Amino acid sequence: MKFLINLFNSILKSDMFLFDRQARVSLKLIGINLQETQLKKKLTEEELKFQTEELKNCLSLEWTTEPRPILKSNLELKATFHLSPTESLLSKFFPVVLERRKRNELENRMIHFLGIKPRNFVRDAPGHFPLFRFFSNPRSIFISSVTFKRIHLTPNATFDLGDPSFQLLWFDGKIECIVKLYRLHQIKHFGKSRIFEKPAPIVGELFIKVKDKFIEKSFGETHYEFQGRFLPIKKDLYLLEYWKLKPIWNPDLLAMISERMMNHFLLLENSELLQEENLERQFPSFTTDQIKNLSSADDLASIFSPDHP
Domain of life of the organism in this record (predicted)? Predict the structure, then answer.
């Protein structure tokens, strides 16, 4: 087996295959929470260290900065990478995949180097080819009987989300949350579909009110952060993972929300009000991303007001 691998690598290195040996990617980070002078100073003093220690096989790195209001700045990067034989083969047949992988690597490394809050971008999980996840991850889900409820949970004083980029907001020893409950009827993947027979399973989504927290101890916007999904029976959580839907594994959160919220949902579902509202509105445009961008529960109520389009 080792002989075949060496033979394959030697063939790729030969001139009979005219593959690209280098890849050049560009990237722009907007609204970095650092003054331009601070950003320039850090890059000037530690550019060589970043290029040699953080970036693998980086041949050259160019950067330019731009000042922004409220003590922020933009950073534009242009990097040239040396490609391994395997990456050269990938660039020949899947150039977009390789470019995205290198761009994500550059963004990940620079964010870690600057110590700033990560952005919401697609990350390539280690050891997984992106094309496989394209076929396995859900493309869309079909739901009904959607209901939302604002709740206040009372976790213990040591409760933590485990994410240093967010700060929990406490109100009299409680945290504010939004729970979205619905019946899941269908999950569509690329080229296949999973349909659930009646009664369709009840699924819940949890959003917790947090404030962005940056490495320099400053704080950003307040919003509701998605924590994951849950089912009525905690032992069934593995099904969500099997369906490629992110579950909530935090036992403290599960203990506080599961049974109580499911009982509340069943009462609402049996009421004529919810059935009529679902029939008329069908909640066509409300998404998880919209909840994440809400700054208060009043914004949530306004979306489903009669005047909302």
Answer: Bacteria
The DSSP call for residue 226 is E
Residues 177, 168: Cα–Cα separation, whole Å: 11
**CATH for the 17-134 domain, from 3.40.50, 3.30.230, 3.30.70, 1.10.3470:** 3.30.70
Peptide bond just before 130 cis, omega within 30 deg:
no
The enclosing H or E element of 52 equals: none
The count of C-alpha atoms lying within 13 angstroms of the C-alpha of 95, restricted to the half-sphere facing its C-beta, is 8
Q: 217-245: per-residue pLDDT in tens? A: 667 778 888 888 888 777 788 888 888 88
Are 8 and 88 contacting, i.e. CB atoms less than 8 angstroms apart? no
- Can you tell me the distance from the alpha carbon of 113 to that of 176, in angstroms, rounded to the nearest whole number? 33
pLDDT tens figures, 158-207 = 777 767 777 888 888 888 888 888 888 888 877 778 888 888 888 888 88
CA 245 to chain centroid: 12
3-state secondary structure of 116: coil
On the question of pLDDT at 17 being above 80, the answer is no
What backbone torsions phi and psi does residue 118 show, to the nearest 5 degrees? -65, 150
Q: What is the 3-state secondary structure (H, E, C) of 175-204?
A: EEEEEEEEEEEEEEECCEEEECCCCCCEEE
Higher pLDDT, 116 or 29: 29
